[in-house]
Design goal:
With 227 residues, the chain is α/β, with parallel strands linked by helices. The protein has 8 helices and 7 strands. Helices cover 36% and strands 19% of the residues. The chain has a 7-stranded mixed beta sheet, sandwiched between helices.
Length: 227
């Protein structure tokens, strides 16, 4: 799956409409359905997602995550997902891009129980994913640059860039799912960071956006750059 959903695509309300909207293969849908089954089972003992969103799982979580896959470069194979929680968006993308040669998703989550859950989903679905049970700062200190760095509603953009910057190389793309107030976050972040960003309307949340960010110069801040 390499296409961003276009305007006018069918409304996603369940697995069938998700498959129709994204043109996902039967094999991939079977893996996503296994993910859904495991999430519902584990949700009884671990708060993986808000219980109120479970009836809309395919829109609120699966579609919300899947929409960013088409915004990544087609040759992106080294992907880091920060604060993955129950696996959104990183684990969904790892399932969608499972058959891309050389692809690997690196899921970073500090909650041990959520990491155990994500490892079980990766095992059951054959997703090309590795789970890191550690804080983002510790992971970023040793992981090196990635092709793509993603996060979903993890923190205000300025703080998020502080975590993500060590993972950026010259060609790294950041894909960040954001809610309301994204323009204010961009304005605040540009006081401290140099980057380029495009904003795309979310396909799953009328109030949300997907930020596609590039040109982040690593951890150097603007006020450290000589005038």
């Amino acid at each position: 799956m390499a296409q961003h959903i276009v305007s006018g695509a069918p409304q996603v309300i369940d697995a069938e409409s998700f498959s129709d909207a994204l043109h996902v293969s039967r094999e991939t849908m079977e893996r996503l359905a296994e993910y859904e089954s495991l999430l519902i089972k584990w949700q009884k003992s671990i708060n993986l997602v808000s219980a109120a969103t479970l009836p809309e799982l395919w829109r609120r979580h699966m579609l919300d995550s899947a929409q960013i896959a088409g915004l990544a470069p087609e040759n992106a194979v080294r992907w880091a997902d920060l604060g993955s929680g129950g696996g959104f968006p990183g684990l969904v993308i790892a399932i969608l891009l499972r058959d891309r040669p050389g692809f690997g998703m690196h899921l970073v989550e500090s909650d041990q129980r959520k990491c155990v859950f994500m490892r079980e989903v990766a095992r059951a679905t054959g997703a090309a994913a590795k789970v890191y049970n550690e804080r983002i700062e510790a992971f970023a200190a040793e992981a090196g640059p990635f092709d793509v760095v993603s996060a979903r509603a993890l923190a205000p953009l300025d703080r998020l860039l502080g975590w993500a910057a060590p993972l950026f190389g010259p060609d790294t793309i950041g894909l960040f799912l954001k809610g309301q107030g994204v323009q204010d976050e961009l304005t605040a972040s540009r006081k401290s960071w140099i980057f380029e960003a495009d904003s795309y309307p979310s396909q799953s949340d009328p109030a949300g956006s997907v930020l596609k960010l590039s040109g982040l110069p690593g951890p150097a801040r603007i006020h450290h750059v000589p005038s």
